[in-house]
């Protein structure tokens, strides 16, 4: 398999204060574990371009874009958009790199240059709705990439899979009435952002899991719900909201996944992608706040994507 990692140093410049868990050290922890696992020499690393505003505006209203672009504080200051979503001077640049990574990875995978790609980026995206940033997220990177695949490349059906411990409410909002997009999410429930977990359409497969659920429970749900829905949808490309805050060591969530669970989920998605989507997968980092567990989980995800185990 040919796999690449997209990232950019600008993604380290977005910071929301020393107390905030969604911190630049998350990307440094991933980088450290890639080096420890000797993946840095085996998997190509690509520089993320800035997303064009047209790409952002395929998923977000002009008002949502302006909320970020036009409220950047002076260097060293902060501008809170809500209680835990905060702009610093470099946040817009970082957000355009994060979305740009997802779009560039989509282009490369559809062009056949790569089989799949992982975007090691922040800010994350899956809580950002079409009309507003929220929940540490500014622009919805995965949703922007999916719209790029549909509207620029002309794909007819895609799937977005979200295994972050939190519900990807922003992504669900974006595609609630779009039958081209299967949104399959697993998330702790009840938990932030406290959405109704009932499926709202045939292409919105919610898998609420109770606190303390372990890998075995989650794997069974994936087998019983996600995989049949994905085979029925026959996506031509799969996007992944890869959040690792469901790791047993991550205090942000209360479920008990470990590295081997993330590798297993990834392998299931790859099998679906091989069958329906020419293997095409673009995965974007969402949550994951226990730094060592985050780095190790990304390594497990990447080793599965690159078939290095
Ligand atoms: Zn999360």
Automatic annotation (TrEMBL):
Domain Histone deacetylase, first and last residues per copy: 20-305
Family: Belongs to the histone deacetylase family.
UniProt name for this protein: Histone deacetylase family protein
Pfam families associated with the record: Hist_deacetyl
PANTHER family: HISTONE DEACETYLASE HDAC1 (PTHR10625:SF10), HISTONE DEACETYLASE HDAC1-RELATED (PTHR10625)
Organism, as annotated: Massilia hydrophila
């Amino acid at each position: 398999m040919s796999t690449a990692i997209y990232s950019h140093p600008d993604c380290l410049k977005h910071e929301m204060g020393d107390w905030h868990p969604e911190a630049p050290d998350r990307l440094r922890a991933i980088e450290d574990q890639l080096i420890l696992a000797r993946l840095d020499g085996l998997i190509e690393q690509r520089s993320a371009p800035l997303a064009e505003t047209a790409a952002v505006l395929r998923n977000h209203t002009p008002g949502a874009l302006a909320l970020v672009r036009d409220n950047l504080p002076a260097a060293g200051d902060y501008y809170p958009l809500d209680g835990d979503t905060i702009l610093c001077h470099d946040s817009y640049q970082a957000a355009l790199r994060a979305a740009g990574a997802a779009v560039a990875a989509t282009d490369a995978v559809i062009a056949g240059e790569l089989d799949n790609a992982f975007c090691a980026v922040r800010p994350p995206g899956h809580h950002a709705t079409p009309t507003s940033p929220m929940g540490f997220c500014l622009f919805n990177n995965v949703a922007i990439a999916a719209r790029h695949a549909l509207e620029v490349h002309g794909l007819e059906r895609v799937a977005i899979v979200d295994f972050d411990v939190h519900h990807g409410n922003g992504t669900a909002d974006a595609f609630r009435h779009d039958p081209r997009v299967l949104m399959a999410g697993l998330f702790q429930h009840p938990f932030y952002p406290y959405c109704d977990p009932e499926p709202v359409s045939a292409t919105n497969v919610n898998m609420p899991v109770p606190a303390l659920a372990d890998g075995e429970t989650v794997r069974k749900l994936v087998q019983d719900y996600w995989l049949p829905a994905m085979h029925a949808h026959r996506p031509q490309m799969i996007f992944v909201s890869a959040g690792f805050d469901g790791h047993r060591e991550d205090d942000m969530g209360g479920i008990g996944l470990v590295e081997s669970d993330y590798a297993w989920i990834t392998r299931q998605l790859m099998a679906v992608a091989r069958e329906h989507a020419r293997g095409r997968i673009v995965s974007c980092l969402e949550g994951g706040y226990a730094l060592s567990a985050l780095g190790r989980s990304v390594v497990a995800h990447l080793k599965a994507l690159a078939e290095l185990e």
